[in-house]
Structures are given as C-alpha cells and as structure tokens.
Amino acid sequence: MALYILLKKVKTITFLTLLLISLGTNAQNTFVTGKVINQENKPLEGATIIVSSQKKGTISNAEGNFKLNMPKGNFLFEVSFVGYKTIKQQINTNNFKKLVFKLITTDNVLEEVLVSAVRVKADAPVTHSNLSKKEIAKRNLGQDIPVLLNYLPSVTSSSDAGSGIGYTYIRVRGSDASRVNVTINGIPYNDAESQGTFWVNMGDFASSTENLQLQRGVGTSTNGSGAFGASLNILTDAISNEAGGEISNSFGSYGTRKHTIKFTTGKINENFELAGRLSNIYSDGYIDRAFTDLKSYFLQGSYKDKNTLIKALTFGGQEKTYQAWFGLTKEQLNEDRRQNPYTYDNETDNYWQDHYQLHWNEKISNRLTTNVGFNYTKGKGYFEQFKENSPVTKYNGLVDATGTSWDGTPATDLIVRRWLNNDFYVANANITYQKNNFEITSGASYSYYSGAHFGEVIWAKKITEGTSIRDRYYTSDAKKSDFSIFSKFTFNVSDNIKTFVDLQGRFIDYKTKGLTADRNPLEINTSFSFFNPKAGVTYTINDENSIYASYANANREPNRDDFQNGKNVKHETLHDFELGWRLKNTKIQLSSNIYYMKYKNQLIQTGGLNDVGEYLRKNVDDSYRLGLEIDANIKVNKKFNIQQNLTISRNKIKNFKLDRDGTKRNIGNTNIAFSPSIIAGNIFTYFPEKNIQVALLSKFVGEQYLSNTDTKASKLKSYYVSDLNISYELSLEKVIKTITFTGLINNILNKEYVDRGYTYLDYWTGPTSFEVQGYYPQATRNFLLGAILKF
Question: How high is the mean pLDDT of the chain?
C-alpha cells in the first residue's frame, strides 16, 4: 500500500512538472498571423511561408491568411508562390502587428499561360510530377527525354541502341508512349496516325526545356490524342532578361558526344528578345553499328510588356540512325549481346522535321487572360532496307525474280526506301477567368494532318523492262482532323474544400486510301465523337496535409496500324479513379495515391511486331490496372536529400480469349503484357559543398511478360540498375560566369539486363515461335562527362 501511494505521488509530481514546463514553453511562444497578397492586393492561396531555422512552415488559405506558432525572437521568414518572386524578411516576433507579404510577379507568369490550359496546380486532384530546368540539367548529357524521366514514379524507359540515345521509349503505369499524350507549349506532338512520339526527331530538346509536368492516368483535358497512361506537357525556354550564351560539350562511352551552343540577346528596349540553340549529338550505340546522328536547332523571338507576350518559335532537326529495331534472338543474346544481325551498310532511318509555332498571350485584366497558339509541322523521311529473297509480288511488277523465297514463290534481292511525307497544322485558343475562389478555363483546339506513305525500289538484281528505279510500288494518302473543346472549373466550397470539374468534347475524322507496304488494300473512312468528363475534390486537413479524390473518363480512337491489322477494331474507353494523400512541410514532401483504371475494349499490345518494329495491338473486352504509388522527397539536413518512389500494381485482362494456332479459347485472367507489378526509384543526393552535388540513382523494375498468356517463355526477368551523377559548379564572374562540370556513370554495377522484347506467343506455339522471340539488351557500365560554360 505504501509503495502504491509513493508511486502515485511520483506520478502527480511528474505530471505537474511537465505541465509547468509546457506552460513555460508556451509562454515563450506566440502565434504569428499574416496575409500574402499580390501587387493588386488580391489574396494568394497556397503561398508557402517557411522559417528554416525553426523547421516550421505553413501555406496560406483561400483568403491568403496564415498562422504559425513561433518562439519569441528575430527570425527570417521566406515567402514564395509559383510565378512570383520569393521574398525574405527578418521578423521580430516579440513585437509585431499582423504581417502582410506582397509578392511581385516574375517575368515568367505570362510564360506559364502557354501551358496553363493543359497543366494542373499543386493542389489539384490530379496525380502529377513536375521537373524543372535545373533538375533536368543535372543529367542532360545527350540522352533523350524518356531516359531523363526514368526516375519519376511509375516510369520505365528503353532504347533500341541500348545507350539511351536515338530511338528511345517511355512507359507510364505499363502504358506505352502512344498512350502518353505529349504537348509542347500546349501544341500536340504525338504523331496523328501512329499516336506515337519520336524523340529522335528532336535531339537535345531537353536543352530548350524550361520545365515539364507529367500527369499520370487520364489527367486533365489536353490537346491532341487522349491520354490513356499519362500526359506530358513541356514548356520551352522562358525569356531571359540579360544577354548571355552557353557552350556545352560532353563525351562518353560508345563514341558518344554532344555539342550545344545557346545564346540570348536578353531584353532589348525592355521588350524584345532573340534566343537560339544549335546541337549535334552522335553515338555509335551500345549495339554494334547502331549509330545515331542527330542535328537540331531552336530559335525563338519574343515580345513582352506588362500585359502581352508574343512568341514566335521554330525548332526541329534531322536524324540518321542505323537499324536496331528488331533486337536479338535468345541465341544471339547468349553469343554476343552487342551484335547486330543487319549487315547492309545503309540499313538506316532518315527523317527531317521542322516545327513553327506562334503564341500570343494577353492579360486583359487581373481576372482575365487569353492565349492563342498556331503551329505548322513539316515532316519528311524514309528508312532504307536490304531485302534478301523478297517475293516479287510485293513490288508491282517493278522487279523480276532471280530466285525463290523460303515458301517457293518467285523472289529476288533488292533495296527499298519507305517514305513518309506529312504536314500538320494546329490552332489553339484558351481563356481563363479568375475571381476570388473561382476559376474557369475554356478552350478549343483544332488540328489537321495530311500524310503520304509510299515505297520505292532503289536497287534490284533485275529491273522489269519498261520500269525505272524509284518507281513507287505502293502509295497511300491519309487525312485526319481533330477538334476538341473543353471547360475546366475550379472553385472553393469552403476554406478546406476545393472542387474541380473538367468537361471535354472531342471529334475526329480519319480517312486513308491506297495500299500497304505488302500491297494489301487499305481504305479507312471513319469518324468518332467522344465526351470526356472529369471531376475531383481536394480536402485540406491542415497546413501540411491534404487528401484528394478524382474520376476521369477518356475515349481514344484506334491508330493506323490497328485498322490495318484488324477488320473490326473498336475505340477504347477508360474510367480512371484516383485517391491520394499529400504531406508537405519543410522536411518532407510526400505524395501517395491509389489508382484504379478500368478499360473497355483496351487495345493491348500482343507482344509481336509489325514490319517497321512497332508493337501490334488488339482489343480485349475487359481489363484493369490497380496500383499504389508513393513519391517522397525528404530533406534529411542541408547536406543530404532522399527522393524515393514506389509503385505496386496489378494489371489484368479478365477472361482473356486467346486466338492461337487457329483455335480460340478462354484462358482466364492474365497479366497485361509489359506491365511490371513493382517499379521503384531512389535518388540519394549529397551536397558536400554548396557548389558540389553527388547523387546515386537506382531503379528496380519487377518481372513482366512479353505476351498476355502468362507463359514462362514470355517472362522477362526483373532488373536493378544504379547510376552515379556528380556535378561541380565553378563561379568565375568574368567573361565566363560559370563552368559546370558533370559526370554520369550509368549502370555502375555493370549489370547485363534486358528491359524490353517481343514474342508471337499470342499467335502460335509451333517450333518457329521461339525463334522469332527477340530482346533488346541495354548497355552495361558506361560513362558521360561534360562541361557547360555560361557567359
């Protein structure tokens, strides 16, 4: 009993002591209140207020107000908001009235109008990631944009040549690049017919990128082909106030080199600027003779005053790459993973592409802004191939047989060029109105595509009498128009609840008539009308935490190959459900979400390739993707930062009906091809000094299947690779302002891995089916070293 009374007294004394300490501590603290406004004295919602020395921070509410529990004393407050200049102010919390921070817009506010119609803000109920120019520059040594995005959540990338230069590919949540909508300054970039993106036509475009946003899932309404896996919108270089120049050179493994020259006049007479870039990238490739030679340019003229921004841009270039489209068989991979089975010395792809854009942004009032954009793209090119014992029936009587093919039909050796010649026109118009807690953006986009497909015989053992070299053996013309109109509404129901509604109508007409490369008739005359509604809500729990939920509906038309390969191909429909939680303070930025993407008539990749190395697709009735994504950025201290992301998913076809070897059967629920269930990325960054950065980047991609049959023969092993990135900036403050040295060691663990392949197991299981199964080996340990001189 005595022991019980003693323990009770000890507890009472301890509680009173802690209470007194707490009261004493609170007596030393005070609540600092304030408001963040713009130069028109309008409140800014979502501005960030940070006191780094106390590891405290908060975000302003809809009225621009904020509150912080602070000790008494002198502290440095840092207030920032996107599109406004950050201000830092010393505040004495012992004696203050309500603080008022007035933020002034930066010169980039009107720049953001270029992409505001297709982008979302930080608190929108849309799952997304942003990447700034500074972040891109850390690894920009010649590799293409898909490779630079490799460490974002749910992203995987690959390349034909194995070194990340040339023909490169991106997947998001298992969806391939043809399902990732890409816009440049709001202008659609995806090819109108194939729906793919060909970064090889815009070498070193990362050097002219101001920032980009990757929205996963359906995202917000955008221009061009519908987003079925993600949308990527890119903003090109902003106007520079000061004149300057930049020379960058990098060299590395496999004969890789990149040379870039940039310049800007800065603002002339406070209103005009001229800027440009010239680049050349060359690489022999990891795969033997899979060389890439890219020449590109970017030129921009701008006019800007307080309320107007006019930009005229032209960019593009030409590419020449040696073919590595069809990978290696298993036997070839085991013999020599760097070999290239092609022997003809000009088995190359050659393409020229030029873009011309004009944008006019106008701030009519503090509440009303408009944007009008125009684009013309000219593309022309061919790939050249040597054909051994090719059936002469494919060439419209241009050549005579000198032998027989494998099936006994008359055949000959010859060389062909298969051409594309296309024109692409776009007009966009958007208007945004803001008032207090309400914002509406409405817009329309119209595009028209005209493309010619044709093939020429440029050499043969024997030419038919009366015909000539370069006579065309097939031709097909295509016309496609795409019109969309949308309205997006954002409004605050209360201080804590923000809602988002997005309504889009899209109308497509597509016509083509002629012959395929195999001289089969191809006639398409079809139209589609889609309604794509989206809605979401964000609930702000407190200054650090928020949750969101959204639903998005998307519809998408088949591409040219789908029509060519299937008589009864259908358009596909996607219902995308997202539920997420965001945490943001001075130490941690965390985004996590669950997604459920339910498809009707999804056009899945079968694993097989067509005759130009593109994956074949077919409709499946019912399929889904269900996943959890976690993306964290942790500031451990001033010298150490950790970025981690993880995706765990299930990607299933329900009751997959396999049509193989002439027999149809239901094989039940199977995994969707090219959809790993685990994708993880890590970036550990160390700052030993202010101007030195060392980063270790790692990527894990789990097992995936090359077909939709879940067969062991089509399973691709998981892989784990790590890169080491080091940069050092030397400030000179003379003619040369800075020199930045960058080093990148890719695959430092020297892993031999394959990240992509193909198979025809969805079609047949005969003895030849495994012989036509192919793989794309990626580079083992390799390096890139570069230096950037800024004037």
Answer: 90
Phi-psi region of 289 (alpha: psi -120 to 50; beta: other; left: phi over 0): left
DSSP states of 632-654: EEEEEETTEEEEEEEEEEEEEES
Cα–Cα distance for residue pair 101/185, rounded to 1 Å: 32
Query: CB–CB of 505/459 below 8 Å?
Result: no
Domains of the chain: 30-103 (2.60.40.10), 109-234 (2.170.130.10), 235-790 (2.40.170.20)
**What is the band of 38 on the pLDDT scale with cuts at 50, 70, 90?**
confident
- Res 1 pLDDT > 70: no
140 CB burial (10 A radius; 0-12, 13-18, 19+):
buried
Residues near 423 by Cβ (< 8 Å), separated by ≥ 6? 376, 377, 378, 379, 449, 450, 451
Least confident of 273-277, 375-379, 400-404: 400-404
Q: What are the φ and ψ backbone dihedral angles of 239, each rounded to 5 degrees?
A: -65, 140
With H, G, I as helix, E, B as strand and everything else as coil, classify residue 277. strand
Which amino acid appears at position 486 of this protein?
A: F
In whole angstroms, give the CA distance from residue 272 to residue 347: 46
* CA 390 – CA 344 distance, rounded (Å): 15
**Strand ranges of the sheet holding 87-92, from the earlier edge strand across to the other edge:** 56-59, 48-51, 74-80, 87-92
The full DSSP string for 171-201 is EETTB-GGGEEEEETTEE-S-TTT----GGG
Over range 44-61, report the average pLDDT. 83
pLDDT at 274: 97
Locate 15 and state its tokens: 């509680």
Pull the structure tokens for residue 327. Answer: 């990978």
| pLDDT above 70 as % of the chain | 94
Instruction: Check residue 397 and give its pLDDT.
Output: 92
- Total-model pTM: 0.87
pLDDT of residue 106: 65
Task: Tally Cβ neighbours within 10 Å of residue 479.
Answer: 16
